[in-house]
Amino acid sequence: AGELVGLSSQGVAVGGKHVSYRRGDNARARASLEVSSITVYNTAGGYHAGRLVAATHDRRVVCYAMKKALIRATNDTSELRTLLRGHEREVLDMAFLAPRGDLQRAGVYRLASVGAGGKVFVWHISQQAGPGGAALVAFPVLHVQPSADGAAMSPGGAAAAVGFHRCAAHPHAAGIVAAIAGSEAFILDVDAALAGHSPADGPVVVRSGEVRRRCRGHAGAITDARFS
Asked: Of 204, 209, 203, 201, which Cα lies nearest the Cα of 181?
């Protein structure tokens, strides 16, 4: 027997409900978590502030950063793989966007990534049928570049073309991504940026100076960000 104790939303211990429990030697107790590896990739040791691995909400597609500024995308169900090419320098951060109804039904996932070159890419990743069989296909649909006219505030407080170094996707609002540059968070509406544009025409290029929704206030560089 024991006492059940939890935390309130204010972080205060609450509870006191008396509960009893019994350890039994049944099948459920003996069951163990089954784990299978998708891939094995050796990386050089070092400190990384961003996320070098990202997974979709349904855990079907997993992406991880590789050497030479590449991103590997794997489909856990079909075991298909592909490479995302576009960053000029190492990948710093990644996040899958919240699913959008029509794209989700079409099996299209969207990934935002930031490279050490200061650029942000948003990718479409999907499994498609082809003459040689099914394939995992990925291509960039949005390319956000740092620009001096963006007047992003550097840690020293001066306006400069500060490159992006982190990103965060809204957990529920499809298409909303925060791209972090210096002490500012640029709020990107991916769907609005892509409105009226065909993916066949290549990625839409947006300069940071064209992004009007920003969050400011930090005196130094922002090290991390999340949507509540």
From this structure: 209
